Amino acid sequence: MSEPSFPPLFSGQADPDPFNASCAKADKGCDAGLVVYDLGADRLRAAIVFAPDVTLGEAMVMLPLCGVGFQNALGALSPPETAVHLEWAGNIRINGAVCGALDIASDTTNADEVPNWLVVGLELRLWPESEETGGTPDQTALYAEGCADVDAVALLEAWVRHTLVGINAWTDTGVATLHKQWEGLAHGIGEPLTLGDKSGTFLGIDERFGILLRNEATSLMIPLTYLLKDV
User: Fold this and answer.
1) Which end of the chain has the smaller Cβ count within 10 Å, N or C?
2) What is the CATH number of the domain that holds 63?
3) How far apart are the C-alpha atoms of 59 and 51, rounded to whole Å?
4) 77 located within any domain
């Protein structure tokens, strides 16, 4: 398997635990643009280190932005009938079933503070964990969905490239285009949803991609910072 190649200002490094390794390296002051990856036989795992110059509340947009970047990347490499949808909490669905997830972490949880670093991680199943897939119809793997010709290295490279395109567009024009793109890929709008001890009908997202829920008692807005992983 060849080593991945990334755009200028990005650098790659292999590690068996990309997400936690990226957070540790970011905490020690590594450069933004580091892509840590693990290209296993049955799954692709990677993480990108960012150094935001805006508050955490604004920088959390990197999670949906990386999700749209992944959809664009896979869309360019997979058969045209392959459907990719994104859950607000990070899960990635391919042809309706969960195939992977995005995670996010930072050195702060204060939405009004400018973080020193932000890490977005990607994990994607390439092959099913078992040949017996009938018992888990809501779970799938990339190569079980007609995408056996998609090379994991090429997909990783494309994810970084399309994410960079998204970052440049967000920097130039703001969140409006990204907001529209993400809502077009969102899974479960109009359906019941439970997040921890909160539940309601998923109505959509606000201008900072916070999720809007409505139940019999009240309407709720849960900010994206709710999804920050404790590392």
Assistant:
1) N
2) 3.30.930.10
3) 9
4) yes
